[in-house]
Amino acid sequence: MEKTLPFTKEQLEAWRDRYPTPFYVYDEAGIRACVERVRRAFAWCPGYREYFAVKATPTPAILRLLASLGCGCDCASETELLMAERCGITGDRVFFSANQTSPREYAMAHALGGVINLDDVCEIPKMEAGCGVPETVCCRYNPGKFAIGNDIIGTLGESKFGMPKDQLFAALKELKEKGARRFGVHAMLASCSLDAAYYPLLARELFSLALEIRETLGITLDFIDLSGGVGIPYRPEQEPVDILAVGEAVHKVYDELMTANGMAPALYTEMGRFITGPYGYLVASVTGEKRTYKHYVGLDATAANLMRPAMYGAYHHIIVPGKEALPKTDRADVVGSLCENNDKFAVDRMLPETEAGDLVVICDAGAHGHAMGYNYNGRLRSAELLLHPDGEVTLIRRAQTVADYFATLDVDEAFAKAGQKA
Ligand SMILES: *Cc1c(COP(=O)(O)O)cnc(C)c1O
Asked: Which terminus of the chain has fewer CB atoms gathered within 10 Å of its CB, N or C?
């Protein structure tokens, strides 16, 4: 699908005057429409809820927007739990899917009223130390093999997440003996899957597991969590997942395996990328060019603002606003300023001719984009803006400053100690 922008070059220029590049901008209308489609896709399932994976876009304005549309939060750390709480998202609107978790984090999740999703049978004592055994608890399944593979998660036998079936059954049995009364299972077996069969196949796997759990342990699951992993078309030649068709396909499997066997578990999803990914843009300015063995177009953004290309070799489409109609005659590597040769947003990308000062938009950066930012080379994390349906923008995260960077350092103390030793 041809990628287009929900804003104009003139709008971007006006924003740049107020908020220097690089910055992120999120399209509220796009996110709203996406959540609406997801809700329609699963409207047939009583108790359905999307628990947005906070790690994808951990920004309060985004979480509040999603909460206003009926979504909960899937958290994985103390800070993410605190952010949910500060956004007023508590109780059964919080899911806690951590791994290698501390008793303290279990205690926090439980105090918020959230549902704990155990990654391993060995986590039970840590959970008990933190908050005892809650009435409602979920266990994370890893079947070891699955029909749909994925580069990011890799083979499931190599994945650190979830429990094999025997351990999952042991965990459920132990939790029941220790007083848990409501149970769910969870699995995330792919990441960024564009295969419309992913959720239906995963549903089949988990519904079959639910029947086996009832048969073997006498436990009737209250909910089944399909987690995240639904992909987005990063490349223009890829097609988006038709979530309405996916919802219908899951419905068929649900009727066949659950309804027909007298079960009616609620379904949950924990999509991150699908909800915000396509609706976030990293906006940067061209700083200049360099012609050596290759042609380089330099930006004022770096991999510290968007790590996916450096980390996974991920493709992010790049648009030069105002030059969309020009021929793409320039083959260039689009690079940041880090002292790291993988600091490239694109390699051998065909672009229109650019010059210093041009604005450049890096698409599909709304999930796992700003969130994965870091401070290498002392580069600072950017601002985030929310574009409202009326065309106005709100600053929802200011840019990090040099003072923020130095705030965790005690420069004087360090100098004093070094001086004593010398
Ligand atoms: C990362 C993650 C998600 C969201 O994954 P997406 O690929 O962004 O949909 C959901 N649940 C858990 C437990 C995760 O770790």
From this structure: C
The rounded average pLDDT for each run of 10 residues, N- to C-terminus, in the chain (422 residues) is 94 98 98 98 97 98 98 98 98 96 97 98 97 98 82 72 97 98 96 95 97 98 98 97 98 98 98 98 98 98 98 97 96 98 98 98 98 97 98 98 94 71 54
Query: pTM value?
Result: 0.96
d(CA 84, CA 115): 13
Would you say the CB of residue 53 lies under 6 angstroms from ligand 1?
yes
Contact by Cβ (8 Å): 406, 380: no
CA of 271 to the centre of ligand 1 (A): 6
CA angle 238, 306, 58 (to 5 degrees): 95
Task: Encode pLDDT of 361-380 as tens digits.
Answer: 999 999 999 999 999 999 99
Confirm if 296 and 333 have CB atoms less than 8 A apart: yes
38 lines ligand 1 (CB under 6 A): no
Alpha carbon 374 to its chain centroid, in Å, reads 16
CA distance 227 to 193: 12
